[in-house]
Design a protein that fits this description.
Elements: H1 3-23, E1 33-40, E2 46-53, H2 60-69, H3 71-81, E3 89-94, H4 97-119
Parallel strand pairs: 2-3
Antiparallel strand pairs: 1-2
Helix pairs in contact: 1-3
């Protein structure tokens, strides 16, 4: 399959998967998830789908179990919606990079706030005061 066709199929697959997960799947283990990326094999027979839980504290194992149990339904829906001869076999991976980024941002913000609190009462920085 040509590279541009694989990229186009990955974009369509990502859009349709997001719609299916948002509107069709009612599994409470899934919660709110976001489709981060889709990587399709060059032959178009398999696809790695990276999913990120949008709710902090969502258990990656329960999200993965919910996706695995709904895999057949999702492929059936994709077969109805996509104009392809073969619907790729889906392999779901939970991507926690968004949650990690949010955690790191909160930690940095907390440290900045702590530094600002500690700086109250100190004289402003002056290079002349710190020369040896």
């Amino acid at each position: 399959m040509a590279k541009h066709r694989v990229e186009r199929l990955a974009g369509e697959l990502k859009k349709e998967l997001a719609a299916i997960l948002d509107r069709e799947i009612k599994d409470p283990r899934l919660g709110m998830v976001s489709v981060v990326s889709v990587e399709i094999a060059p032959d178009g027979c398999s696809a790695r789908v990276y999913i990120s839980p949008m709710v902090s504290g969502a258990d990656a194992k329960s999200v993965s179990a919910a996706l695995d149990s709904a895999k057949g339904f999702i492929r059936t829906e994709l077969g109805r919606r996509l104009k392809t001869r073969v619907v790729p076999q889906l392999y779901f991976h939970v991507d926690e990079s968004i949650a990690y980024g949010v955690r790191m941002t909160r930690m940095v913000d907390a440290q900045i706030a702590a530094d600002e609190q500690a700086a109250v009462g100190r004289p402003p920085f002056n290079e002349d005061n710190y020369r040896e």
